[in-house]
What does this fold into?
Amino acid sequence: MRIWKLGFAGFLVAAFVVGFGSGEQARTERISGSAGDVLDDDPVGRLKVFVYELPSKYNKKILQKDPRCLNHMFAAEIFMHRFLLSSPVRTLNPEEADWFYTPVYTTCDLTPNGLPLPFKSPRMMRSAVQLISSNWPYWNRTEGADHFFVVPHDFGACFHYQEEKAIERGILRMLQRATLVQTFGQKNHVCLKEGSITVPPYAPPQKMQTHLISEKTPRSIFVYFRGLFYDVGNDPEGGYYARGARAAVWENFKDNPLFDISTEHPTTYYEDMQRAVFCLCPLGWAPWSPRLVEAVIFGCIPVIIADDIVLPFADAIPWEEIGVFVDEKDVPNLDTILTSIPPELILRKQRLLANPSMKQAMLFPQPAEAGDAFHQVLNGLARKLPHGPDVFLKPGAKILNWTAGPVGDLKPQEDWIIREAAALEGLHISSHDESFNLKYIGPGI
It folds into this structure.
């Protein structure tokens, strides 16, 4: 049986070498139905967004302190802010706004290794909401139901990198009526609020552009993956990291010639993905991975191993048609699953992936381009309009409990409010930052 599998896979790879060499990849396939319509949709004229002007300590000064934030996988919060400031959907008149945006850079507090620590995020967000609710009337009309926030942490507005702690703390209470734009998406999870807009992690468009190779390059690698299989430092007993899925990939296929897998990250990583038929996209500490973006951009069929994942822009991108979904429990059968896919189906997936609009929807380019991830977020917001009558509260009505949540979120709140009020009056109050000696785990790279 194993010999048959190898022979079939060899034939399959050879077929791609011939097909792509003869221009097969150049014939892109139109995305059928509503997905194509959404990808081509233009949100301009369908909604208006008011951008709150916050003190620079919430955004620009944080970035100035550590410009590395511009390049990590959570950078969408920064580029979404920049995009909205110059977007045609922006309105300077809040009375005509459909949506209100509060630019807080909650992931720009980095360790020496460049990984974001989320511990200050709840206090920053509480302070920002206190500020806008004290100086503008719009939050109080809805308690945030017509506001949206970009929260690209591992577990969104739960603001913790460890899943157990994130579940325990839950979504920040004061954001529970707002719309959240986040990378995290997993069905039936406390950190995924109903109505959230799931976006891809940030991948530097210019960097990826410089690694493009000829479309006629043969795809001679059958299955490709680079990354961790075990996170020994944070999961010494094994089995918890990636719920054991990555370990199962390594244990079952480390010696399989069809699988080009390793922990090493070569300088030819992007080029190698463009030479591969399938690219593994397993969960890490969180269900999503930057490999999902990279695979789509480089035309490598994503093999998604993350049970119950909610994928970016799922109402626009036909993930079932372009990807392969493998249940975590079925990882030991990965070779059989992939070699059993008919060549004509693989070719169709590749033609869909070659569609420029598909790639564009996964990126946050600067400057913005039609159909990109920025516009897909706006499309998501536009589709939630008009706001229903339940969005607006009656005078004096309250739904949210501002004092709810972990004690650690509440202790410094009075200090934050005092400092912000003083800043508005032009006063100066000395303060010091809280320090944390905690290790960031992250989604697993």
About this structure: The chain has a mean pLDDT of 86. The two ends are 34 Å apart (CA to CA).
